[in-house]
Amino acid sequence: MRYEYADLDENERQYDHIDLSENPVVDAVYVKSSCMEDRGNPYIESLPRPKTMEEILSSYYNISLHLCADQYAAEQETDAD
Q1: What φ, ψ does residue 14 adopt, rounded to 5°?
Q2: Whole-structure pTM over 0.85, yes or no?
Q3: What is the sign, positive or negative, of the torsion defined by CA atoms of 5, 6, 7, 9?
Q4: Cys-Cys crosslink for 44: which of 25, 38, 61, 66, Cβ 3.0 to 4.6 Å?
Q5: Considering its fold, how many domains does the chain have in total?
């Protein structure tokens, strides 16, 4: 199977510019695998690159902080009543 590879920067992902909440099905965008064993495998090379540990932690803490803020606001409303 022949397909073209996307030309991406190091920290860019091939689906970053697509809103997947509005478009759950999109055409595959292929990126050369960094693992030689997976090169040429369209099922692997169409997967988005994994997030970095920094991105994972940032996302986790942002979600946690929002949940804590919401919980705190709800408790404040309850205490005011």
Answers
A1: -70, -15
A2: no
A3: negative
A4: 38
A5: 2
